[in-house]
Design goal:
By secondary structure, this protein is of the alpha/beta class. It has two domains: about 120 residues, no CATH class; about 290 residues, Rossmann fold, CATH 3.40.50. The protein has 15 helices and ten strands. Strands 1-2-4-3-7-8-9-10 form an eight-stranded mixed beta sheet, with helices on both faces. A two-stranded antiparallel sheet has the order 5-6. Helix 8 links the parallel strand 3 and strand 4. Helix 2 runs antiparallel to helix 5, helix 4 packs antiparallel against helix 5 and helix 13 runs parallel beside helix 14. The protein starts with a helix and ends in a 7-residue tail after the last helix.
């Protein structure tokens, strides 16, 4: 079962096999003795399905049902999927039993192909398991380390690190459970990435990134791991250790708005206390906030901005990739009622911009923040601009970057992370010349 869930379905043979199977079923449904009545039914079914798919796409964007515009590819896949289903339904009437079986199976195949295509368009769920919210990665082995050797280095690591001859060519990734010891929050297992430099004997203490994905979403660290493997390859195996933590909760279908609440549990305490304490106890990470980064995408990006603004004593670096302007922005009334008990002033005070405005002068000295979004993602580009202007106003070294041609999908994530680590590598002492 684990092997099936870990099957890669983006830019992979499995993806193309799914598409080819859908094409094969389509051909099977179309190849038949000419029949005018069936042709009319099939034409009506296909046209109706395509129009319904287009209607769903445009209505979703018009009503902002998902908090961001769906990419055009999602609309095309929706139209193609429902058009195929229309063809299959039209093929039931007055058909031989075997054709009815083929038509029934075709409906399932079209749904699978459509989901695969839409998922590929977003580029966020690389495996079959992650599509269904089940990130069943194998547990990653955590190396032993000397807890007394985790102070901030006197010189940047890039200047002192001598990689051994047996340095791995890539890092390792897997999962680890992180209990809600203090918060009581029940979370899914976190993704953990160990860069090449963390996998050798006498490994150095490294910077750490705690990152969070979007809502709905999974604690899947594939994209950030891929990006950091590329950076590590250019920097003698050096990269931060990464924890992709679950800020949503075990069900994965709720949005705690990056806060503690009676309704959804203590999500904020989980990330800022339990995950932080677990990292300190279990990972060979530098014990200095200068080397700690809080990061996230979309919902997770809003959380990162909030936690960075609220906890500069823990995190001196912030990465917000296509992040919300503030947690709960997609449902202000619901967040105010469910998270803050209807207290509007408490909700307003929780916004990153307002947290920073209320902080004493000098609170954010020595901090670095990177905000990115896709150039074709107007809502989240505006959010990135607004929060970056606020961080700059309080003295945080700020970078705002738009990923050209990207919307709210995987290209925005990988492009944003690449820019973020271009900025952060010298700050973290991981590249020469820092």
């Amino acid at each position: 079962m684990s092997a099936i869930l870990e099957l890669t379905i983006i830019d992979s043979p499995a993806m193309w096999i799914i598409y080819l199977i859908a094409v094969a079923f389509t051909i099977t449904l179309l190849v038949r003795v000419p029949d005018a009545k069936w042709f009319v039914r099939a034409s009506i079914g296909v046209i109706a399905g395509v129009l319904l798919g287009a209607l769903v796409y445009f209505a979703s964007n018009l009503l902002d049902l998902f908090g961001a515009d769906l990419p055009p590819a999602a609309g095309l896949w929706a139209a193609a999927t429902l058009g195929g289903i229309g063809l299959a339904i039209a093929s039931f009437k007055e058909a031989k039993p075997w054709r009815r079986v083929v038509a029934a199976i075709a409906i399932v195949v079209y749904l699978l192909a459509g989901a695969t295509g839409i998922n590929a368009a977003y580029g966020l769920n690389p495996t079959l398991g992650s599509v269904f919210g089940d990130v069943e990665e194998s547990k990653v082995d955590l190396p032993n380390f000397n807890a007394d050797n985790r102070q901030a280095p006197a010189q940047p690591l890039a200047q002192t690190w001598q990689p051994p001859a047996n340095l791995p060519s890539a890092g390792q990734r897997g999962s680890q459970p992180i209990p809600g010891t203090t918060s009581g929050f029940v979370a899914r297992d976190a993704g953990v990435y160990l860069p090449p430099a963390a996998l050798v004997e006498n490994a150095p203490a490294l910077p750490v990134v705690i990152t969070m994905m979007g809502y709905p979403g999974n604690p899947d660290g594939t994209i950030i791991s891929d990006v950091l493997d590329e950076f590590a390859a250019k920097n003698n195996g050096l990269a931060p250790i990464v924890i992709t933590a679950d800020q949503l909760g075990a069900a994965g279908v709720q949005d705690p708005a990056c806060a503690d609440s009676a309704k959804y549990g203590n999500a904020e305490t989980y990330i800022t206390t339990d995950v932080v304490n677990w990292a300190n106890a279990n990972l060979n990470v530098i014990q200095d906030p200068k080397y700690w980064t809080i990061a996230g995408y979309s919902n997770g990006g809003g959380c990162a901005a909030k936690y960075g603004a609220k906890h500069p004593d823990i995190f001196k670096n912030v990465i917000s990739i296509s992040g919300e302007e503030f947690p709960g922005s997609e449902g202000v009334d619901a967040a105010t009622a469910d998270i803050y008990g209807g207290d509007t002033s408490a909700f307003e005070a929780s916004k990153p911009i307002n947290i920073m405005k209320a902080a004493p002068a000098g609170t954010y000295v020595g901090m670095t923040a990177i905000f990115t979004a896709g150039s074709e993602d107007p809502t989240f580009s505006a959010a990135a601009t607004a929060v970056s202007q606020a961080t700059e106003a309080v003295g945080i070294s700020t970078t705002l970057f738009l990923v050209q041609g990207a919307d709210h999908g995987g290209d925005a994530v990988s492009g944003g992370l690449t820019e973020a680590f271009e900025v952060l590598y010298p700050v973290l002492g991981l590249s020469s010349g820092s």
